[in-house]
Amino acid sequence: MNSNNIVDMFLEIAAKIESEKEYVTELDSVLGDGDHWVNINKGYQKIVSMEDKLRTLALNELFRTVGMSLMSTVGGSSGVLYGDAFITASKTLVGVDDIDLPKGAEVLKAALDAMMKRGKAKPGDKTMIDPLYQVVTAYEEALEAGAPKEEVAKIISDTAKKGMNDTKDMVAQKGRATYRQDKGVGYIDAGAATMYYQLDIIGKHIAG
Length: 208
Ligand code: ADP
Ligand code: MG
Ligand code: MG
Fold this sequence. Notes:
The protein is an all-alpha fold. It has a single domain (about 5-205), classed as Alpha Horseshoe (Serine Threonine Protein Phosphatase 5, Tetratricopeptide repeat). The protein has helices at about 5-20, 20-30, 35-50, 50-55, 60-75, 75-90, 100-120, 130-145, 150-165, 190-205. The longest helix is centred in the middle third of the chain and has 19 residues, at about 100-120. The mean pLDDT is about 95. Adenosine-5'-diphosphate binds next to α3, α6, α7 and α10.
């Protein structure tokens, strides 16, 4: 995928996020303060507003620009976590003009590492990290096993969904859900849901 393909993918993600206002807001209203959709939607609408400029940028500059914009425009935990993820991922893209299957795994791994470091969270803490961690692991295993492209796309999509659903039974260790007496058990994490939407589309573009 080149810069134009990546921008097309971001536009598709932005439309998906925009259409999930009610559900995501409901999830963050249960476990958090109800603003997760507003935060993530603001971020993707910012990306949409930069479309023309982003199309002219090399991949590393594109990711770095998106990360810096998210840091400055998106509020809440999401702004910092996604901002840092994009900026860190941009460092894997210096001199790269095509994100192929192995590079895609490298980019997602860099984003995951940045989020885990910045949020001091680990898999199982009931956050947006859960679907991303599971996808990176399954994606790397699929590459290792030499799985064909279409299979990798399905693995990414299925695993992201599972990662989101797995947060339902988890006991929150990070974020606002930890303030609840029940630690959110029984409810899907909002950040995990929006991470799933993104990974589902990313999988289809990267390996579809
Ligand atoms: P805020 O909680 O500040 O209102 P958002 O509502 O935008 O921010 O994002 C909440 C989401 O952020 C949670 O659903 C969870 O997935 C994620 N999250 C919260 N804290 C952390 C953390 N320390 N590490 C990773 N993800 C986190
Ligand atoms: Mg919130
Ligand atoms: Mg908030």
